[in-house]
Description:
Largest sheet: 2 strands, antiparallel
Helix content: 55-70%
Distance between the termini: 37 Å
Strand order of the largest sheet: 1-2
Mean pLDDT: 85
Radius of gyration: 17 Å
Amino acid sequence: MRCVPNSRKLHPTADNQAEPAMTHAQTDIILWNASYATGIDEIDEQHQILVSTLNEANLRLREDESLEALEQITRDLLAYALYHFETEEGLMREFGYAETDPDNAEAHLAQHRAFSSKVVEVRDRIKSGNRIPREELISFLNQWLVNHILATDRKLGEFILARKNGANRAA
């Protein structure tokens, strides 16, 4: 499932599966639901913080699209995203993800690097006085986060859970 910026959001259904729903172009709020869960508490808690932070940024930028607000929001988001990436990458090392599933591990790391580079690029644009529209920034951030969680982080979660279950059976 992909989140299409400015036209769709994901919301929980009765069975807690993500389902696309049409929204107003101004909404772009992510509602956390069980389909985003990786099964790894530390990752899921950090994802919930990222979702909340993005939603708060979206609301703030509706009131204040100044360069100062954009700079602060992108700085704070990048700082937390880097912290979160360190957590995931530490778990990848701890559970031998690169050794066991090198293609997915490499793709995961590449996505982290590409996201960080894009946010730095956006920050540089803002610092040089070029305003980025709220819709463009929020759409990019929301789409990236939802797609990364659903496609990439869930694979990592499944891998870690399988390793933990295998270790529990061996003990």
